[in-house]
Amino acid sequence: MKLILLGPPGSGKGTVSEKLEKDLNLLHISAGELLREEVQKKTTIGKDIKEYIDRGELVPNKFVVEMVKLEVKNKDNYILDGFPRSIEQAKEIEDLGITLVIYLEVPEKIVIERFAGRRVCKEGTHGYHIKYLPPKKEGICDQDGSPLVQRKDDKPEVIKERFRIYHQETQPLIDYYTKKSILKKVDGALAPEIVYTAVKKVVKKSLSR
Ligand code: AP5
Q1: Residue 181 within a domain
Q2: Strands 100-105 vs 183-187: parallel, antiparallel or unpaired
Q3: 3-class SS at 98?
């Protein structure tokens, strides 16, 4: 299974991927996480990347595409979360033979409300929501015990820019993959367990074919 999770910022791509990874043994490859890892290394490339992320803009393809291609090399079971984000990036991975694209449909109004309550662990790997997906112990990651923090790009002005870019660059992918007959829509505005059950059903159906 080579799965793409597509959706606006905050639609739940990371949340769903984390669960699918554990449940169905699919490797979770998050473009955003790979980029943030590079930023943490404080390399010259990392410093460049940080500027784009902090502004809410897409990081140039020369940094992202090779990074993702390296991760998927010789693998057959994975979830691409946050990649591709433009028609250009989609064309770059045409040869991978993507099995399924799930589009998490969530109205912008709902997503904006989610950002205020989002918390992530220190490494940024595990995500929570103070109201909808709280950790067992307040402020502490269930999985690695690190303190939970807010993401730097979750500020209102950066979120606005991330949405603008999403509409301009990423939304055309819905048509692109619909025409290839591999896109399935899931209502991502419902409660986390309901969204996850719906996604899993679609994935399992595709696996059984
Ligand atoms: P990235 O980290 O991928 O950010 P994003 O796409 O904006 O998506 P998010 O991680 O914000 O949200 P999500 O959909 O994963 O939602 P989540 O599950 O966290 O990218 C960051 C930046 O990196 C980009 O802006 C760009 O600069 C760069 N970048 C990344 N990929 C790139 C690429 N391909 N090319 C170029 N640049 C790239 O959920 C959000 C919150 O809601 C959480 O608190 C969660 O607990 C909660 N929640 C989840 N589901 C539900 C639900 N059903 N009900 C209620 N709450 C829920």
Answers
A1: yes
A2: parallel
A3: coil
Predicted confidence (pLDDT) per residue in 1-25, tens digit: 999 999 999 999 999 999 999 999 9
Residue owning the nearest CA to atom 12 of ligand 1: 10
- Cα of 31 vs centre of ligand 1, distance in Å, is 10
In this structure, what CATH number is given to the domain that contains residue 77? Answer: 3.40.50.300
The CA-based angle 139-141-142, given to 5 degrees, is: 120
Instruction: Tell me the residue range of the domain where 198 lies.
Output: 2-107+157-207
- Going by CA atoms, what residue is nearest to atom 50 of ligand 1? 12
Q: Domain count of the chain?
A: 1
94 DSSP 8-state letter:
G
Q: Is the CB of 7 under 6 A from ligand 1?
A: yes
Nearest CA to ligand 1 atom 26: 58
Residues 126/142, Cβ–Cβ less than 8 Å: yes
What's the Cα-to-Cα distance from 96 to each of 3, 86, 165, rounded to whole Å?
11, 16, 25
Question: Is 53 inside any structural domain?
Answer: yes
Nearest by Cα to 8 from 110, 137, 96, 138: 110
Residue 130 lies inside a defined structural domain of this protein: no
The answer, as to whether pTM is greater than 0.90, is yes
Would 116 be classed as within a structural domain?
no
